[in-house]
């Protein structure tokens, strides 16, 4: 194009150098016109804008307007500039050239040159920069301080032109005037560029950027615009793997909330890169919205186990988000797909959730090796959202190393978001293109940085390039957390949709790459980088330290020192010494240290102006500040200084600044001695007091103190912060009558120590009463109790009884196998014998353990008159009954009937059944009227703390407040952030009402035998009962009409068929599907397995039938998500040996189903600590031999044995007979089940008939 050739000729560099390229050479970015004019000329479509948005940009325009006062040429140039008539512009060697579209088709050529500074003027400029470090550092930060303009004026140097004679300008238009409107349009666009880069004002006058940098002492190596992705990938051969260190369950994620105002105080308002308003306000509002959204993020209450699921992050290249590849360790893609779908992952588009194979790094002999694995692809958003929804409290046993790490990385990101500990970062993609992501901010207040903890748990195979040739190192942990942070910003920024059409807004809040398309956008990336650089200006080498000392008359003295960030214990260096040094400072070049310190202090001086004087004196002077200024420093500016990498060094008396706080004092009227909580509330008096640390002031004393002074004020041995607005609010609060809490509110307040931020103070008498209230009393176990309680069980009964008589509900949360049922029965017996059970007690339990309760009550507390309310023909019989046993389902269906009864006590077994407070089942339980409330649960919290609240809402209604209040004050801070203060507060308030003993406790171990055996009584389902009755009726008729060998054969056949029905109806009929819900035994077996697996234990399940073993295998896979091993006679010797070795040595499988015939003897399976006898042989020797696979030499842990027995069937009756008659047990050892064939017809009918229940 001719016009383009003319522009090329106009370049002072000569032919072949276009103006656009020359401008790129100076500014660092290309020009990008948008659209074309009528003749094909590229036209810039510029939006209407103001020119001169900084004071120096305005000063530039004001200088030109002053010398244009008589010609009035500039206004028409402003119109041209706003209309996008300047098509191209360039600058080199202090000269400007441009192309401006006029009324003619061909653009006019403009050339401008400014008078250069004289050598004397240059010398004065350089001297000023070298003598005034604060001015030099401001200039290096992209600011032109007004102080510099004033200082140059005093030295006789005018930075801006003062007459047209200082400007040589030429335009190819026919207008003879200078400036013409085309030249004037270029002046206005130069004002915009000067806004963005004040160095241009010097370059136009013949002073280069490098000359200024040299005079200012700015190291050239620090000139960086934007941040590239760090080099965190290395070839896989360089990685040496080591065991991942498990992150402790009490991993702390509680961060002190970042001072958002202090953070945003660092950013100048109305940044130059956006003309749609104040972008700082948009970012500020986004921080609040993201913190709120992340705090309310829904957590998946239950999710399948991810133990065998590996996640990989596949990074495809610069500027592209990584994708997830998910693989199952055993290649079970069907199960993997089910897990993903169950967790809400969908998406057939893009090949997601469709089977594929990818090469990923696999751990091998201390290193990594890329290898193909089958699995699924997931989009980045789906994978990130998945882990953001997982509870961080999920135990190690439910996660693979990769899923555990990603879940904790997600939780760390949420904690960083909600506490505002994240910063925007410009990611430079080259060519002026960029996007913004979000990275963790420094967390200096943590005992241990969560990122350093995550590094220890980082699986070396987690992130790689396609094909697995390059893998991420531990240095990439912050980048993975950044993925989650950025996703949270995209999810919760709440930017209005129309505003997201702006590509700069989209780059910040949607991750869309910004691509410059107009000349004015060429420096956007540099402008954004300069703006954000203030947030990430913390030096890695040196920190400034502001030392504060009292200086008499209430004033404080400030001085500045420097410290080595890499060695904080090294001696400090004064700022004056650093400026005077010609030797390395902290092993760094002295000019670099001086620049870092100057930059920090120059930024900090915007908030603490005294620092500018200290800096310009090169540390030789100190500064004094008033008490009010000291208060601002400690409260308003401390976070800002911390972000800048500046540390405050305070004297001891200032380090713990006292702040007044209103507290409620509770005292016993007249020194009374209450007998219980009801008495206590009548004797309590409440009043306000003011706490100042350990000091207590009356309201009047504090009023006098606040009236005498404000700011940071000396008080006794320390200092107190008195801010007028806070003092006014506090005095207004304590002028109101003190609150009078209810019984449950006061108990919570007293145990927690505070409620909604208001501390409760108590006197000695009240504290002693509360200690007595939460201390269990010694009680004697009733003589009518049959059996012997272990010492820990006796303590449990005493604790239950103490809480019961005090009217406090409580939860016995002993580990499985420690005898919660027997302790509850002993409590009910004690209440009855002491006359405290005026109404029947009610036990509510799962259907699978109704039989257990009935049998255990008969065995241990035979004087309790028991009624079971369950089944189709149930009748609620209360007359003459001490105990009613029912199920949760029955209670839900007959809620009105139960609600209309007053119960002497209600005991909830497996109380986690009311974990969801919104269910009809939970509402039905909580509607019961009871004098004593007890919950039994080995897992009162399975997934989230809301479950604990629901149990307490039954035990002590209102004690933990509303569910919303509990979530806000406890669940969220603990579950998301591991807040240790909230954890401790929850322990204080719930501890007196929850008794938890573990099998691993030393005191408990001493009380337990090496093998604990329990009978697990199960009911037949209706299908089983009908089938059982039909088989018995027909078979007994045949038996009664037979004799001899035929009779014995019929009886043995009957036993087999009934065993099959009791095991599962599918075993007998062969029809339908073997689901656990169709069999009482299957339901109970899976419940037991689930608990043992949740506790991290391995289990053996013995059955006589291979087909039953296959059914159990399917149930365990489909319902528990576990792949179990199956040891049976059809396996080869080699396969059996491999299966046993895997079970013993590997983490998986965790369950082995064993055919009793194939595996009853000879095997060593000590990896298992739980044994389930699914069906019985009534031969103690056979059972013991099977149990001894786990309970044998080499076993170092206690073994728990469960014998499944179907109630009201021949299984229960034979088992009872064998326990009552030793001779039968001895007979069974010799003859097995054959002795049953020798019983009479009457005895057989008694044994085999189904007792009605």
Entry keywords:
single chain; disordered N terminus; 51 helices; elongated; 40 strands; 6 domains; 7-stranded parallel beta sheet; 1253 residues; alpha/beta; 6-stranded parallel beta sheet
Descriptive notes:
This protein has 1253 residues and is of the alpha/beta class. It has six domains: 2-222, no CATH class; 233-535, no CATH class; 539-655; 662-773, no CATH class; 791-1007, Tandem AAA-ATPase domain (Rossmann fold, 3-Layer(aba) Sandwich), CATH 3.40.50; 1011-1248, 3-Layer(aba) Sandwich (Rossmann fold). It is built from 51 helices and 40 strands. Strand 14 (542-550) and strand 15 form a beta hairpin. Helix 3 runs antiparallel to helix 8, helix 32 crosses helix 33 and helix 38 packs across helix 39. The chain starts with a helix and ends in a 5-residue tail after the last helix. Mean pLDDT is 82; it is low at 1-48, 222-230 and 1222-1230.
């Amino acid at each position: 194009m001719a016009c383009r050739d003319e522009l090329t000729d106009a370049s002072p560099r000569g032919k072949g150098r276009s103006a656009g390229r020359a401008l790129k050479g100076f500014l660092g970015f290309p020009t990008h016109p948008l659209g074309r004019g009528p003749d094909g000329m590229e036209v810039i479509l510029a939006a209407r804008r103001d020119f001169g948005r900084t004071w120096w940009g305005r000063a530039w325009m004001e200088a030109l307007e002053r010398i244009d006062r008589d010609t009035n040429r500039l206004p028409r140039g402003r119109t041209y500039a706003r209309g996008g008539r300047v098509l191209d512009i360039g600058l080199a060697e202090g000269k400007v050239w441009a192309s401006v579209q006029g009324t003619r088709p061909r653009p006019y050529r403009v050339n401008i040159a400014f008078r250069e500074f004289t050598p004397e003027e240059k010398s004065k400029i350089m001297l000023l920069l070298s003598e005034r470090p604060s001015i030099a550092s401001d200039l290096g930060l992209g600011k032109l301080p007004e102080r510099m303009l004033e200082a140059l004026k005093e030295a006789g140097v005018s930075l801006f032109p003062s007459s047209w004679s200082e400007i040589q300008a030429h335009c190819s238009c026919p207008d003879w005037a200078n400036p013409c409107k085309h030249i004037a349009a270029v002046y206005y666009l130069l004002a915009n560029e000067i806004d963005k880069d004040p160095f241009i004002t010097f370059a136009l006058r013949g002073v280069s950027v490098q000359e200024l940098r040299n005079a200012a002492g700015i190291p050239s190596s620090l000139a960086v615009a934007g941040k590239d992705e760090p080099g965190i990938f290395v070839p896989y051969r360089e990685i040496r793997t080591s065991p991942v260190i498990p992150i402790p369950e009490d991993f702390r994620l509680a961060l002190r909330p970042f001072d958002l105002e202090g953070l945003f105080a660092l950013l100048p308002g109305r940044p130059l890169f956006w003309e749609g308003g104040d972008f700082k306000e948009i970012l500020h509002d986004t921080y609040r919205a993201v913190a709120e959204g992340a705090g309310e993020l829904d957590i998946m209450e239950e999710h399948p186990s991810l133990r065998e699921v590996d996640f990989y992050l596949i990074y495809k290249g610069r500027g592209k988000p990584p994708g997830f590849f998910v693989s199952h360790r055993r290649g079970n893609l069907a199960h993997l797909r089910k897990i993903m779908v169950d967790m809400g992952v969908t998406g057939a588009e893009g090949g997601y959730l469709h089977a594929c194979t990818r090469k990923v790094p696999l751990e091998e002999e201390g290193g990594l090796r890329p290898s193909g694995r089958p699995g699924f692809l997931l989009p980045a958003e789906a994978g990130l959202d998945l882990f953001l929804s997982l509870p961080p409290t999920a135990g190690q046993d439910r996660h693979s190393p990769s899923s555990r790490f990603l879940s904790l990385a997600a939780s760390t990101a949420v904690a960083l978001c909600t506490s505002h500990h994240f910063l925007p970062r410009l990611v430079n993609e080259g060519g002026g293109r960029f996007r913004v992501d979000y990275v963790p901010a420094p967390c200096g207040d943590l005992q241990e940085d969560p990122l350093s903890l995550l590094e220890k748990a980082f699986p070396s195979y987690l992130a790689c390039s396609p094909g697995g040739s390059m893998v991420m190192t531990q240095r990439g942990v912050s980048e993975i957390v950044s993925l989650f942070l950025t996703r949270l910003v995209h999810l919760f920024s709440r930017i209005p949709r129309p505003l997201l059409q702006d590509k700069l807004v989209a780059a910040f809040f949607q991750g869309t790459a910004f691509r410059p398309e107009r000349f004015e956008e060429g420096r956007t990336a540099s402008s954004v980088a300069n703006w954000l650089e203030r947030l990430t200006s913390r030096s890695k080498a040196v920190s400034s330290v502001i030392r504060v000392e009292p200086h008499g008359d209430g004033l404080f003295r400030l001085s500045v020192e420097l410290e080595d960030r890499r060695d904080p214990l090294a001696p400090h260096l004064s700022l004056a010494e650093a400026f005077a040094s010609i030797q390395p400072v902290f092993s760094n070049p002295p000019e670099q240290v001086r620049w870092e310190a100057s930059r920090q202090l120059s930024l900090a001086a915007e908030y603490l102006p005294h620092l500018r004087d200290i800096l310009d004196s090169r540390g030789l002077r100190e500064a004094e500040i008033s008490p009010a200024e000291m208060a601002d420093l400690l409260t308003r500016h401390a976070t800002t200084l911390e972000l800048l990498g500046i540390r405050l060094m305070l004297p001891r008396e200032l380090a713990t600044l006292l702040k007044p706080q209103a507290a409620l004092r509770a005292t016993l009227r007249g020194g009374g001695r209450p007998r219980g909580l009801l008495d206590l509330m009548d004797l309590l008096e409440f009043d306000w007091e003011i706490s100042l640390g350990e000091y207590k002031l009356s309201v009047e004393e504090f009023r006098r103190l606040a009236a005498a002074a404000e700011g940071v004020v000396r008080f006794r041995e320390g200092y107190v912060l008195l801010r007028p607005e806070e003092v006014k609010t506090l005095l207004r609060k304590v002028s109101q009558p003190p609150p009078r809490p209810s019984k449950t509110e006061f108990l919570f307040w007293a145990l927690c120590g505070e409620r909604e931020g208001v501390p409760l103070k108590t006197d000695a008498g009240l504290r002693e009463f509360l200690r007595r209230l939460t201390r269990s009393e010694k009680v004697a176990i009733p003589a009518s109790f049959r059996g012997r309680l272990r010492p820990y069980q006796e303590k449990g009964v005493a604790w239950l009884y103490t809480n019961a008589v005090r009217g406090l509900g409580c939860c016995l949360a002993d580990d499985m196998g420690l005898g919660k049922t027997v302790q509850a029965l002993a409590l009910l017996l004690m209440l009855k014998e002491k006359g405290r059970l005026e109404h029947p007690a009610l036990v509510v339990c799962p259907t699978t353990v109704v039989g257990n309760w009935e049998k255990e009550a008969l065995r241990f507390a035979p004087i309790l008159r028991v009624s079971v309310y369950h089944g189709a023909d149930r009748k609620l019989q209360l007359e003459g009954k001490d105990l009613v046993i029912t199920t949760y389902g029955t209670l839900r269906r007959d809620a009105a009937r139960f609600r209309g009864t007053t119960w002497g006590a209600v005991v909830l077994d497996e109380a986690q059944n009311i974990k969801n407070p919104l269910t009809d089942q939970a509402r039905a339980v909580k509607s019961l009227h009871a004098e004593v409330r007890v919950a039994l649960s080995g897992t009162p919290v399975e997934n989230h703390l809301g479950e604990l609240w629901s149990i307490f809402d039954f035990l002590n209604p209102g004690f933990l407040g509303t569910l919303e209040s509990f979530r806000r004050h406890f669940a969220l801070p603990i579950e998301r952030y591991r807040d240790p203060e909230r954890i401790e507060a929850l322990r204080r308030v719930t501890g007196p009402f929850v008794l938890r003993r573990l099998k691993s406790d030393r005191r408990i171990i001493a009380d337990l035998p090496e093998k604990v055996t329990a009978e697990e009584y199960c009911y037949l389902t209706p299908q089983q009962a009908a089938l059982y009755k039909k088989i018995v009726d027909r078979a007994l008729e045949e038996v009664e009409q037979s004799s001899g060998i035929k009779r014995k054969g019929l009886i043995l056949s009957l036993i087999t068929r009934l065993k099959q029905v009791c095991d599962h109806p599918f075993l007998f009929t062969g029809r339908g599907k073997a689901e656990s819900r169709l069999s009482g035994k299957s339901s109970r077996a899976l419940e037991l397995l689930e608990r043992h697996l949740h506790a991290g234990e391995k289990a053996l399940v013995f059955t006589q039938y291979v087909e039953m073993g296959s059914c159990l295998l399917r149930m365990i896979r489909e319902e528990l998500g576990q792949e179990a091993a199956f040891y049976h006679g059809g396996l080869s010797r080699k396969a059996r040996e491999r299966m046993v070795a895997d079970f013993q040595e590997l983490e998986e499988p965790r369950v082995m189903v064993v055919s009793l015939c194939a595996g009853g003897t000879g095997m060593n399976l000590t990896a298992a600590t739980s044994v389930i006898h699914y069906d019985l042989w009534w031969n103690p020797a056979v059972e013991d031999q099977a149990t001894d696979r786990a309970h044998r030499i080499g076993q170092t842990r206690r073994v728990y044995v469960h014998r499944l027995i179907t109630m009201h069937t021949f299984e229960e009756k034979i088992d009872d007979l064998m326990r009552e008659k030793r001779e039968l047990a001895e007979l069974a050892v010799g003859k097995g089940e054959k002795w049953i064939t020798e019983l009479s017809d009457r005895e057989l009918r008694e044994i085999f008939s189904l007792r009605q229940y």
